[in-house]
Specification:
Helix content is about 35%, strand content about 20%. The chain has about 450 residues and is an alpha/beta fold. Strands 1, 2, 3, 4, 5, 6 and 7 form a seven-stranded mixed sheet that branches. The chain is built from 15 helices and 22 strands. One of its GO terms (molecular function) is intramolecular phosphotransferase activity. This is Phosphomannomutase/phosphoglucomutase. Its cofactor is Mg(2+). Pfam families: PGM_PMM_I, PGM_PMM_II, PGM_PMM_III, PGM_PMM_IV.
Length: about 450
C-alpha cells in the first residue's frame, strides 16, 4: 500500500527507523519495510536476512511482520531472538548476510525501531539504502512472483560471547568484582553469557528484561542514570562498574570510587592496547573526543584520524583507512576485528583486561588517560544556531589560534583549550563541548560562551 511521504520520513531517519508504535510504526508499516529491505539486499545477491530484537513488548510482533515482508520477496529469515545490537552485528558477520535489529535503544517504552545492516555488519543509512527503502514504502512495495523464503531460528548467544572474549587477552586477569547496571535492557541478556566464564564476581543491577524501564532510563550518557551504579559500586566494594544502554551497544565505566570514567579515557586505553598488538595502526576519534586521544596515539607511534560526530562517519573512515579501532565521546567503540562495527561489550572487556592484568585500582590506572578537564555536552535552545555560533566565534576572535568547520565550529585557544559548537540536525539546539587544562578553566569558558549563546 502507498503511504504519505511525511509519515514515512518521520520514522525512516538518517541512520535507522524509529518512532512511536501504534502511531507511525505498526505491523503493516514494518512489513513493508521488510519487503523493501529484502528487495534492496536481494539485488546485492543476499539469500537471507538475520533478525534480532530487544526486550520491548512490541518487538516480537514487529519482528514477525518484518519477517513476513522479507520472505514474501523470496529471501530467507534467520531469527536469533533476544539480542543486543552488537550481538546482531556478530550474527550478520557470522552468517555473512544482512541484518535487522529491532530496538529503540534508550527511548521510552512506547518507541521501537530498526537498525539495518548489510552483510558483514556494514551500516545502512540514508545514502546507502534507507532513502531507497523509504521511496518504495511510500510508493508501495512491488510484489514478488517467485517462491517465498523460509524462516528458521538460530541461537547465537554463546557463540557471540565466546567470540568477543576471544578478541581480548584475558589470560592474565586477576579476580575482579564487577558491578553492572543493565538498566533493564539487553545487557541483562548478554553480560552473564560473556562474563560468567571469566574470573569475575558479578554484582548485577537491573538485569530483569523490561522494556518499560521501571528503574531509570537506559541511557548512561545522562549522569542521572549512573547514580544507581555509582552507589552499587561503593556499596558492594566492586573494582569497577559497567553501565549499558537499552540495546547494550554502548558501555560506560565507573571506577572503584564510584566516579565516572570518560569515554575519551576508555578510547585512549583501548587504542593503546590495540596499538600494542599492531604498532603504527590507524585509530579513529571524533572531534568531540579529548585531545588526549590523538596525543597518546601519536606518542605511541600510531596514526590518529579525526572525524565528524556520528557512527556513519566513523564506520566510513574505519573502512577507508583500515583503522584497527575507533572511539566516540558517546561511548560507541568500533573494532576492525568486529567487522568495523561497534561493541560496548568488547570495549568493556578491554577495560576489564587492563585492570585485571595489574594491581592498581581503576582510578589510578585511568589517571594517565585523563589529561584534561571537560564540560561534557551542554545543550541550549536557540532560535538561530548559525547566528549564535557566529557571535561566539566573533567574541573569541582575538584569542583564537585556529578555527575549523569539520562539524559545527571548533575553536582552538592557544593549543591548550578548545571548544566546539554544533547545531542539532533535528531540534533547535546548539551543542557545546569545552576542554581545557583545569576544571576552573572549563567553567570559565562555559560561563562565557553560554552567556553569548543564551543572550
Amino acid at each position: 500500500m502507498a503511504r504519505s511521504a511525511e509519515s514515512v520520513h518521520a520514522v525512516i531517519k538518517a541512520y535507522d527507523v524509529r518512532g512511536v508504535v501504534g502511531e507511525l510504526i505498526d505491523a503493516a508499516f514494518v512489513q513493508d519495510v521488510g519487503g523493501a529491505f529484502a528487495r534492496l539486499v536481494r539485488d546485492d545477491g543476499a539469500k537471507k536476512v538475520v533478525v534480532g530484537h530487544d526486550m520491548r513488548a512490541s518487538s516480537p510482533d514487529l519482528v514477525k511482520a518484518f519477517a513476513h515482508g522479507v520472505t514474501a520477496q523470496g529471501v530467507d529469515v534467520v531469527l536469533i531472538g533476544l539480542a543486543s545490537t552488537d550481538q546482531l552485528y556478530f550474527a550478520s558477520g557470522l552468517f555473512d548476510c544482512p541484518g535487522a535489529m529491532f530496538t529503540a535503544s534508550h527511548n521510552p517504552a512506547e518507541y521501537n525501531g530498526i537498525k539495518l545492516c548489510r552483510a558483514g555488519a556494514k551500516p545502512v543509512g540514508q545514502e546507502t539504502g534507507l532513502a531507497t527503502i523509504a521511496a518504495e514504502v511510500i510508493e508501495g512495495v512491488p510484489e514478488f512472483d517467485g517462491a517465498p523464503g523460509a524462516v528458521t531460528d538460530e541461537d547465537v548467544l554463546e557463540r557471540y560471547a565466546s567470540f568477543v572474549r576471544g578478541l581480548v587477552n584475558l589470560a592474565d586477569m586477576r579476580p575482579l568484582k564487577v558491578a553492572v547496571d543493565a538498566g533493564n535492557g539487553m545487557g541483562g541478556h548478554t553480560v552473564p553469557a560473556v562474563l560468567e566464564p571469566m574470573p569475575v564476581t558479578l554484582e548485577p543491577l537491573f538485569f530483569e528484561l523490561d522494556g518499560t524501564f521501571p528503574n531509570h532510563e537506559a541511557n548512561p550518557l545522562d549522569p542521572a542514570n549512573l547514580v544507581d551504579l555509582q552507589d552499587h559500586v561503593r556499596k558492594t566494594g566492586a573494582d569497577i562498574g559497567l553501565a549499558f544502554d537499552g540495546d547494550a551497544d554502548r558501555c560506560f565505566v565507573v571506577d572503584e570510587l564510584g566516579n565516572p570514567v570518560s569515554p575519551s579515557a576508555v578510547t585512549a586505553l583501548v587504542a593503546e592496547r590495540e596499538l600494542a598488538k599492531e604498532p603504527g595502526a590507524t585509530i579513529i576519534h571524533n572531534l568531540i573526543t579529548s585531545r588526549a586521544v590523538p596525543e597518546l596515539v601519536t606518542e605511541l607511534g600510531g596514526s590518529p584520524v579525526r572525524t565528524r560526530v556520528g557512527h556513519s562517519f566513523i564506520k566510513q573512515q574505519m573502512a577507508e583507512t583500515g583503522a584497527v579501532f575507533g572511539g566516540e565521546h558517546s561511548a560507541h567503540y568500533y573494532f576492525r576485528s568486529f567487522w568495523g562495527a561497534d561493541s560496548g561489550m568488547l570495549a568493556g572487556l578491554h577495560v576489564l583486561a587492563a585492570l585485571g592484568e595489574q594491581e592498581r585500582p581503576l582510578s589510578e590506572l585511568m589517571a594517565k588517560y585523563e589529561r584534561y578537564a571537560a564540560s561534557g555536552e551542554i545543550n541550549s535552545t536557540v532560535a538561530d544556531a548559525a547566528e549564535r555560533t557566529a557571535a561566539v566565534v566573533s567574541a573569541f576572535a582575538d584569542r583564537t589560534t585556529g578555527v575549523d568547520r569539520l562539524d559545527g565550529v571548533t575553536v582552538d585557544l592557544a593549543g591548550r583549550a578548545w571548544f566546539n559548537l554544533r547545531a542539532s540536525n533535528t531540534e533547535p539546539l546548539l551543542r557545546l563541548n569545552v576542554e581545557a587544562p583545569t576544571a576552573e578553566d572549563v567553567d570559565a569558558l562555559v560561563t562565557e560562551i553560554l552567556g553569548i549563546v543564551r543572550s
